[in-house]
Amino acid sequence: MRARDTYLVGIASASFFMSYFSRLAWSIVSTYSTLKPTIIEDSMIFSLFFVGYVVVQVPAGIISDRVNPKCVIMISLIGLAASSLVSGIANSIRVEYVASLFMGLSAGWIYPATVKLLTISFRGPELPIAMGYYSIAWPLSIVLAGATLPEICIVFGWRWSYYIIALTSIIIALLYMPISTGNYDNTMHSTFDLRLLRNSDVVVVSLSGFLFFMSYWAITLYAYKYFLTIGLNRYVAGFTYSLLALFGVFSTMIAGYVIRSIGVKGTLSIFEAIYGILTIMLAVVTRELPLMVLAAVMGFIRFIITPANSTAVSKIGREMAGSAAGIANLFWQLSGAVAPVVASFILTRANYQFLWVVMGIVIIISAVIYLLTLKVR
Fold first, then answer.
1. Does the N terminus or the C terminus of the chain have fewer Cβ atoms within 10 A?
2. DSSP per residue, 150-188
3. CA distance 319 to 112
């Protein structure tokens, strides 16, 4: 990969990283917050981020197809910085509600725009490889959230978590300045193709992805607190939380080669089925060391799935990749608004173990749908 290509993938991945790190922050920071949120208030903050994120998905896809996606990403990062700053200085849960909503509204533009940027920059067999490296951002965001946020909260205070997110977002936005996408041609992408809404693969990836991501967000948003409830101390809980993605940093790098070998359909159906089984095991494995091993394996399997999702929408959408990503990601992220509601409903009536069993079954259903109905290879 040329130096320019490496730089492009790097800053696209860094942008993707911030869109996920910002939404994960509250799952850890809330434990240390002086605002003392309840389970319901936690769920509201999670859900409002995703509501904002979901609302902009289709517009983000359409606009990314019509204008230079570099500009879309830079403006989104600036908005994310501003809303993160508000979240850091918030003196009430109501202000956190508003800040979380606007963080979602800002971060929601990043995924469709970065997918579009990579799609116009890479072709053929280079695209899934680029998507694999780009997708490292997702597991890395979870790893660094678990590894750094507890320490930042304990040493500097919970508000500094958001101040750091704001500063980092501004720096990444500035790194786009030297990037040139040439004379960006939007003449072929000036209108939204309604056929995408009737494309069976778009429907399958959107709806099956909804099921998978609903379960995934329940795990990601509540795992840290679960680890605390079963007796892990704060540092060990943070490390175990990081393990849910640590080995995903490595699996993401090889994911492009796996997808090229067994195809998008094979990758999604096989690895989602395995991940569903592992999620159910999360309900019964509670001893510290076995739990760490389980979390590590989950991280490795999980982050072969992410590049497969991105590759699927890029193959389905082709020249309309931004719009296809926007439609699919609307449903994927809508699951993030639904997951806290479902999780809090289960947790107030049952327990974490029941939550993991239900989510594991849902993931397996998603895998079966991909296996039986997805046409794209």
1. C
2. HHHHHHT-THHHHHHHHHHHHHHHHHTTT----S---GG
3. 13
Model pLDDT for residues 80-132, shown as the tens digit of each residue = 999 999 999 999 999 999 999 999 999 989 988 998 888 888 877 777 778 77
Show the CA angle centred on residue 214, arms to residues 222 and 45, nearest 5°: 55
Looking at residue 230, the DSSP 8-state letter turns out to be T
Whole-angstrom distance, CA of residue 264 vs CA of residue 271: 11
Contact (CB, 8 A) for 266 and 376? no
CA proximity to 9, closest of 352, 367, 307, 348: 307
Whole-prediction pTM: 0.76
Return the minimum-mean-pLDDT range out of 151-160, 195-204, 235-244, 345-354: 195-204
Planar angle of CA 166, 145, 349, nearest 5 degrees = 115
Neighbouring C-beta atoms of residue 377, cutoff 10 Å: 9
Dist CA 363 CA 343 (whole Å): 15
